[in-house]
Amino acid sequence: MRVLSVLGSTGSIGTQTLEVVRQNPSDFKVVSLTCSSNINLLYEQILEFKPLCVSVFDEAKALELEKRLKQEHPDLNVDVYHGVEGDVTCAVMPESDTVLGAIVGVAGLKPTYEAILRGKDIALANKETLVAGGDIVMPLVKQMGVELLPVDSEHCAIWQCLWGEKKENLDRILITASGGPFRGYSREQLQGVTVEKALQHPTWKMGGKITIDSSTMMNKGLEVIEASHLFDIDVDHIDVVVHPQSVIHSMIRLRDGSVLGQMGKPSMILPIMVALYYPERGPRLLEEFDPFDPKCCNLTFSKCDTNAFGLLDLAYDAGRKKGLLPAVMNAANEAAVGAFLDGKISFLDIESTVESVYSEFENRNVFEFSIDDILEVSRESYIKAKEILGL
Ligand code: NAD
Ligand code: MG
């Protein structure tokens, strides 16, 4: 049985993780939950899963939840925390052995880092943690002897293809991308796209930030850097393959030319289960994969149009140059995507803002840094991006 802390339990990955727990109650126990501010859903989750502690990032909401629990369920023994300290407290619960990291953004870095330090296995969906902090997180994972279990579907696919394979046999990673809602759009066509359109992902149902990242192709850029950390390979040995059907979740090419891939329906339930049941296999919760489904016919593969979607090249650049640059790029992107989601800027402003913050930072790149340096530079870059946007 895995004893879980679920960070970001009210989000897309968090709720799907709890669905896996709900369907397999004898295999999992939940001891802590965290969210940003959705206390209504968290309240229901508390009643259902009976965690020992929870955290709500927003302090006022945390107090509101605490009051409500005391009034309506005085019998429940659940501690309510808030802020970064609350996230960390929930992540390092002595009772848990595994942390499911599904917070969105670099906010997930600190609790993940602290949990690794306490020897917990990490099932990680929160890619921004590795993009910004991979150079510190990966050596720590090794040092502490914990498992880092990839939940991001492409990385879970690559990981499975690599099971039992010698590291030196890995030649290239072929990471697949749906291409998002604007695949095939020219730069001109991208100019006027709306938030509503950008949120209509053709194959995946996900949280707002990652859906926008998928529409700019930044999601794939973040995933290239994430894969370079997880599989200890430089970004120039990773190719992005646009595959709109999202049937093949990624592939690896081995030294002798063999190409292995992992296929399935576009659902996060399976990668969550692969990570949480590792090294065993769990029961099947999804409909069987049907190769005769029309969606599986005519699988196509093409290159990403980086003239239209410039953030992918920028992410490769950050992945090559390393240092604090990936964190800077990530934080500027978080700020710009947030502003786009709030309807304050246009779609192409996302790219230009990230580029400005990134290129201004380049000269101050340093190679020795701590988690606090990453968080500080992330804060600075976030503010800088907002300044550029006049927000
Ligand atoms: P989401 O927006 O649906 O959910 C994010 C969760 O994090 C929410 O519960 C929110 O309350 C919580 N949260 C945000 N800031 C917080 C903070 N400071 N402290 C505590 N909780 C906080 O996002 P999502 O789509 O579930 O994505 C979560 C992460 O998983 C992202 O990093 C994303 O890139 C990654 N991911 C998501 C999918 C997917 O299908 N949704 C697939 C692959 C990877
Ligand atoms: Mg992914």
Report what the structure shows.
With about 400 residues, the protein is of the alpha/beta class. It folds into three domains: about 1-150, NAD(P)-binding Rossmann-like Domain (Rossmann fold); about 165-265 and about 295-320, no CATH class; about 320-390, Rna Polymerase Sigma Factor, Chain: A (Orthogonal Bundle). It is built from 16 helices and eleven strands. α3 (about 60-70) links the parallel β3 (about 55) and β4 (about 80). The mean pLDDT is about 95. The structure holds nicotinamide-adenine-dinucleotide and magnesium ion. Magnesium ion binds near residues 152, 154 and 223.
Summarize the topology:
Elements: E1 2-7, H1 12-23, E2 28-35, H2 39-49, E3 53-56, H3 59-72, E4 79-82, H4 83-91, E5 98-101, H5 109-117, E6 121-124, H6 127-144, E7 148-150, H7 153-162, E8 170-177, H8 187-191, H9 195-198, H10 208-216, H11 218-230, E9 238-242, E10 248-254, E11 259-263, H12 269-277, H13 311-321, H14 325-341, H15 347-361, H16 371-388
Parallel strand pairs: 1-2, 1-5, 2-3, 3-4, 5-6, 6-7, 8-9
Antiparallel strand pairs: 8-10, 10-11
The protein binds nicotinamide-adenine-dinucleotide and magnesium ion.
Helical content class? 40-55%
Assembly type: single chain
> What kind of sheet is the major sheet?
7 strands, parallel
Which stretches are low in confidence, meaning pLDDT under 50 for 5 or more residues running?
A: none
CATH superfamily of the largest domain: NAD(P)-binding Rossmann-like Domain
Percentage of residues in strands: 5-15%
Main traits of this protein?
single chain, 391 residues, alpha/beta, Rossmann fold, Rna Polymerase Sigma Factor, Chain: A, 3 domains, 7-stranded parallel β-sheet, globular, binds nicotinamide-adenine-dinucleotide, binds magnesium ion
